[in-house]
Amino acid sequence: MSEEWRAQFDAEVSFANGGGLRTEGFRLDIPGREISDEDLAALLVRHLGLLMVGEVRISNKTLIQEPHKGGRGVAGGQPGGVAGRRLVELSHVIRDGMTTLPGWPGPRITEWLSREASRANYAPGTEFQVTRVDMIANTGTYLDSPAHRWADGADLSGLPLDRLADLPGIVVRIPTGTRAVDRLMLAPYDVAGRAVLLQTGWDAHFGTDRYGAPEAPYLTGDAARALADAGAALVGIDSINIDDMSPAAAGERPAHSALLAAGIPIVEHLTGLGALPPDGFRFTAAPPLVAGMGTFPVRAFAVLDT
pTM for this one? Predict the structure, then answer.
């Protein structure tokens, strides 16, 4: 039989929305004979199902070889089998001239073939309209494939459907005013095989100058690596970028780099996540099957059992 280890420790937990708690002599199953304070903090948050954790300070840690007692990590629910379903729109509307990223060109939507001009091509009483759209790929709510960041990564045509459609989803609700979504905020959630959607509320500023402000919420690189290690299928956010776009970030993109290196698609500029339950829904954000492109708009939506 393999060795089983537990950690005994004291902990002080501070919450992002105020308040805290303290434990003394707490014992917790650990996966091996060693564990860092950071990993132990994340395990504690997961075990207790704590939400909106800002910081965990570990002290007086001792590792003990003894049988596991069983963890109580928070597991997300699965959709039930009741009859009926409801669809929830999670995408911004793409309109002529709209702004998605400040300073980037908006789409131009024009008529390529009018109904009047089409009449010459068809039988009397039959007419059609064909529209032309000229836009950059990063328009509206869009999905990033690995090729967006990595030259040898899969492009839109190389993404398997099981990374894009009918995924079990969870919503991580981020406290108002929080900028950096870190590992501890994600620790309570079972993300394996799931679409992890970060609700920051920043979508309320979409289409305004405020949307591109330096204080826009983002996912830290450490949190992105934790999601990749835990086997998340897809990660989405309702902010302007999943990475920090402030001048202090100096153009680094650790969240994009970690997630896309792991083959995890990213959906940015989501909206309407407040209409979803914490879990128990299915998520879809599938772009067209275009070779040679790393990013493209999607119609993102969720399916809820009712």
Answer: 0.87
